[in-house]
Amino acid sequence: MKPARFEYAAPESLDEALGLLDEGSKALAGGQSLVPLLNFRLARPERLVDLNRIPGCDHVREEGGSLRIGMLARQVQLTELEAWPLLRDAVDHVGHPQTRNRGTVCGSAAHADPAAELPAALLALAARFHVRSASGTRVVAAEDFFVGYLTTVLEPDELLVEIEVPPHPPQWRFVEYARTHGDWAMVGAAVAGDRTALFATGDRPRLTRDLAVVDDPWKRAFLEEALA
Amino acid sequence: MPRREDERVLRGQAQYLDDVHLDGMLHVAFVRSPFPRARIGGIAKPDGVFVLTAADLGPEVRGLPTQTLPGIELADAAHPVLARDEARYVGQAVAAVVAVSRAEAEDAAELVEVDWEPLDAVVDPRAAPEWLYRYSGSGGDVEGGFARAEHTIRQSFSIPRIVTSPIETHGAIAAPRPDGGLTVWASAQGRDRTRDQLRHALGRDDVEVVVPDVGGAFGSKGAIAPEYAATALCAAALGRPVKWTEDRLENFLAAYQGRGLEADVELAVDGEGRFLAIRARLYADAGAYLYPTTPTPGQTTANLLCGCYAIPACAVEVYGARTTKVPVGPSRGAGRPEAALLVEGMVEEAGRQLGRDPVELRRRNFVREFPHRTPLGYVYDSGDFERCLDRALELVRPERSRDGERLVGTGIGCYVERAGGMWETASVAREDGRVVVTAGSSPHGQGHATTFAQIAADELGVPAEQVEVRFEGGGIGTFASRSVAMAGSAVALACRKLLAEGGDSATVRFESDMVFSSGCYAAVVEVERATGRLTILRIAAVDDCGRVVNPLLAEGQVYGGTAYGLGECLVEEARTDEWGNPLATSFASYHLLTAAEIPPVEPAFVETPSPLNPLGAKGIGEGGSIGVLPAIANAVGDACGRKIDPPFGAEKLWEAIR
Amino acid sequence: MRVSVEINGRPYERDVEPRTLLSDFVRHDCGLTGTHVGCEHGVCGACTVQLDGVPVRSCLLLAVQADGRSVRTVEGLEWGPLQEAFHAHHGLQCGFCTPGILITVDALRGQALDDAQIRDALAGNLCRCTGYVQIVEAVKEALNA
Question: With an 8 Å Cβ cutoff, is B587 touching chain C?
């Protein structure tokens, strides 16, 4: 379980990083999903572009009522978030203290594991995903960001540089069933106001309150009970 | 008494296998079968890389030894060092590739081209056409018992395979010696057995073994991995030290697994609830090849089938099915949890079918006189099964409710445990005002040095601090919960001999029949009706391991064994898909319990000393892993109103109760 | 690539491949074998070290990422109430997971945690020997010391 060889670059600015990203490269932020894949040799990028030396993008701050989560903000930074309790509850289920200290919020979103908590919470909260490439910037709505199993709209030369979360509705819930503490969910849901995002029920988190879309009868029963 | 072993561990100064570094050391990686079964048409080696295949092995290389035991029939299917014409499980090693680092060895291994021709897998042990071993035993009038029975209770059980998963994986370093021999550092459960297995596999007598600190074994390091032998062959061929540290993926794919048993059991019961006879057919999912200990769990299950009960007749057959999966071998408990699940499950089933209280059925049938010979020939040396049961019931506070949203049930798991047996040596010497104890059975986390020092200190009437403990071989090893009863007794007798003879030193070889620990675990569980979610409310863990030498360490064994068994109850299951591909390949697909899942456990000891050794000790290493499985299974069965096979995931329980 | 890492207050400068994991760097390039490797996919926690004072998995970091930063391993922990409590409560058996647990708990010092919080905080460190009960007791005592 040692990674295959790769080139390594640690750019010190965002522009430099964007210039290095292409089909053969992979961006490295917290590495809590990517490095296991490297160790198993399931991911074999030609080049790793390590974002961790880029200054000024590890913020989690409120701006005009919205929350701004920078590219290098670690998951642990959500744990004390009074005004966005859904994120706070969701992150409590993400891995363990040691992985939350390193794993990033943006990295979790970009990895798009269908059983992951943060993508579902961000989808329920109608987050907006700020994406940059060398040629420009675009903002993607949460509904459009996750497109399949471990797949988002991000192109190989693009980076998710910031997540913008609108003000938190007063009603929210986070429920999940996992085999052990910190493990991936077997099924779960994040609810913010009238938006419900189900996770671990398909190839991506899905925004729906209609539990009939859940094929697995036990998962449906779990969600019916948990969301009742 | 806290352990003398702790300080160097807490300072990070312990030396486990991968911590050993030798000058000029090379690293080996393995090319492994991606198929459950495939013919090997040919192997193309890359240039400039050292690659060892079965074709390179001399005729003296025999593969792992097998071990015959009375009543066991073995197939000619010893585990080969490397697959030759056919690979029979995903992960089986077919070539060893050596390079200057592990990463480069893995790079080079990717360049080895194997011409594979996939063949059909054998997944279901009940339908397997070949067997690796067969065992049968019977005693008493079984036919007569069933003929006289008022009721015949029938039930089938399925116990999945588990991955033993010590946090330190396997590993070996082999180095040529100037005298032409080989020294092998091995993560193992004992020096001498490991040495003998390696000598057999390699077909040479000049192999010596060093066992460094061992980061857990739980039965999985009692037999060498074939990779240990391959690593030694690489070192011999290259004339340089070679290291293999098993990685976690290799441990999931290629380390022998535990459990894996299907069983059809029948119990003959008379009108008063007395058990007249028990018979069973067991299908062990034994895997692709024989390790020396592959038959052990199946045979032990069979021989313990009467459990704590005075059943006059028993007949059991074990079909050790040859499947195209990684082999099976001992894993903490090694047949004892399986036997306890079967017999205790039958008692519960009898209670359910006859409308009788299963606790009363137990009381009616307990063995009460010792020594007690079972129909299959085990001799229980001591015990007080009812006292264990009473204590467990008192501690667990039974509850049952089947109304409302929460189904609550209580389960009992009584057990007997075959422990100890065979022999161990120890010597005691007085040196410069200190006492030096040398024992054969080396530890892997149990705290032998503390316990043996305590035994010597008690015998000699000196402070334990004055006793130094060394492990220099001359014993069989640490397994089957045998170390206090066997090696500890050898230490005690050596001390007594020293006192009696008055010299500077004394050596003793202690031999004993097996001793039988016992106990009763009880659990109260709750199942959420709407989702099947299981909550274990509390567990009472009552063990009779004879005389307890060190209560702190004994409790540590109880908590550890209990957590091991709980893993099996809650989450652990090493499955394959229908084509035989393993589904448990990482801690993302196979889970160990964390601190957050462990329910409240209340331990207690009942002490009936064994008459077979000077300490009166039996064994405590496996009790938790044995008792908790039937206790939780029966509690779940009580809550849900029917027998359910482990593990007890929400989805399965929800299916069962809806 | 040349990397320079301060480990336990001492500088270590070595040439490594970019793919070298921090766990292997600490253990094999720097010879500090108190940090153990149990799974190399970030679940077992045996390899936990502190990076600039924060517990992280060293198997999920590249050595090159630690260039210019400070790492603490079990060898860098001073003997104190934490180690005493593990000894007194039999909080270790084979000891393979122990360094990762000590490094994790060391970072909790000064926090008042109840049993459930201690169990959550330990959930990223797998132990196969102890069943965790005596570890939790040791941590409780150490944090209250």
Answer: yes
Please enumerate in sequence order all residues whose Cβ is within 8 A of that of C135, keeping only pairs 6 or more positions apart, or say none.
B595, C86, C89, C91, C92, C101, C122, C127
Which residues 6+ apart lie within 8 Å of A186 measured at CB?
A115, A176, A177, A178, A179, A200, A219, B650, B651
For residue B11, give the chain C residue with the closest CA.
C75
Asked if residue B123 has pLDDT above 80, the reply is yes
Three-state secondary structure readout of chain A? CCCCCCEEECCCCHHHHHHHCCCCEEEECCCCCHHHHHHCCCCCCCEEEEHHHCCCCCCEEEECCEEEEECCCEHHHHCCCCCCHHHHHHHCCCCCHHHHCCCEHHHHHHHCCCCCHHHHHHHHCCCEEEEEECCEEEEEEHHHHEEECCEECCCCCCEEEEEEECCCCCCEEEEEEECCCCCCEEEEEEEECCEEEEECCCCCCEECCCHHHCCCHHHHHHHHHHHC
CA B494 centroid distance within chain: 30
Are B584 and B163 in contact, with CB atoms under 8 Å apart?
Answer: yes
Chain C residues inside the 8 Å CB shell of A98: 45, 48, 55-57, 104, 124
B102 touches chain A (CB under 8 A): yes
C-alpha–C-alpha distance, residues A128 and B307, integer Å: 63
| ipTM of predicted assembly, 2 dp | 0.98
**Residue B273 vs residue B70, higher pLDDT:** B273
Residue B622 has pLDDT above 90, yes or no: no
Residue B163 corresponds to which amino acid?
V
Beta pairing class for C70-72 and C2-7 = parallel
Q: Which of C86, C90, C120 to mutate to test the interface with B (most CBs of B within 10 A)?
A: C90
Task: Map tokens 């290291």 to a residue.
Answer: B243
Asked if A4 lies within 8 A of B107 by C-beta distance, the reply is yes
pLDDT digits (tens, 9 = 90+) for B269-297: 999 999 999 999 999 999 999 999 999 99
Nearest CA in chain C to B250: C39
For C44, the closest chain B residue by CA position comes to B167
Question: Is the Cβ pair C41, A36 closer than 8 Å?
Answer: yes
State which residue of chain B sits closest to C124, comparing Cα positions.
B594
Instruction: Judge whether A179 is closer than 8 Å to chain C, CB to CB.
Output: no
Burial of B504 (0-12, 13-18, 19+ CB in 10 A): exposed
What residues in C contact B169, CB-CB < 8 Å?
38
* Opening angle at CA B175, ends B174 and B177, nearest 5: 140
Q: What is the mean pLDDT of residues A160-189?
A: 96
For residue B342, give the 3-state DSSP assignment. helix
8 Å CB contact of B594 and A3: no
Tell me if chain B has a CB within 8 Å of the CB of A185. Answer: no
b/e per residue, B385-416, with b = 16+ CB within 10 A? bbbbbbbbbebbebbeeeeeeebbbbbbbbbb
- Which amino acid makes up residue B451? T
C57/A36 CB distance under 8 A: no
Nearest-by-Cβ selection for A40 from B249, B596, B658: B249
Whether residues B18 and C37 touch (CB distance < 8 A) is answered with: yes
Element housing B157 (H / E): strand B151-162
Residue B195 has pLDDT above 70, yes or no: yes
**Average pLDDT of chain B to the nearest whole number:** 95
Q: Which chains touch C (3 or more CB pairs under 8 A)?
A: A, B
pLDDT band at residue B480 using 50, 70 and 90 as cut-offs: low
Q: Would the pLDDT of B146 be above 90?
A: yes
The Cα of A68 is separated from the nearest Cα of chain B by a number of Å equal to: 31
Question: Of A6, A98, A99, which is closest to C19 when you measure between CB atoms?
Answer: A6
Whole-prediction pTM value? 0.96
pLDDT, tens only, B447-469: 888 889 999 999 999 999 999 99
